[in-house]
Amino acid sequence: xxxxxxxLPNSLHAAARELAAEEEISxxxxxxxxxxxxxxxxxxxxxxxxxxxxxxxxxFKQIMSKVPHVTPEAYDRL
Length: 78
Description:
This protein is an all-alpha fold and 78 residues long. The protein is built from three helices and no strands.
């Protein structure tokens, strides 16, 4: 585990303190959890962009052409 010193605006520090108290966790736990969520979100975007770049529209259209054209059930309509 490593230690990090960060500077926060007073308002953000106060909000973090309040949220941590409401969740009954330490500010460190709150910040670590928030950072983990942000890292996961950014990595997911990168992953999806990389995977999307591998796609082939012609292959997609060929596969979709095999899907039967049927009216969806009432519960499945938009």
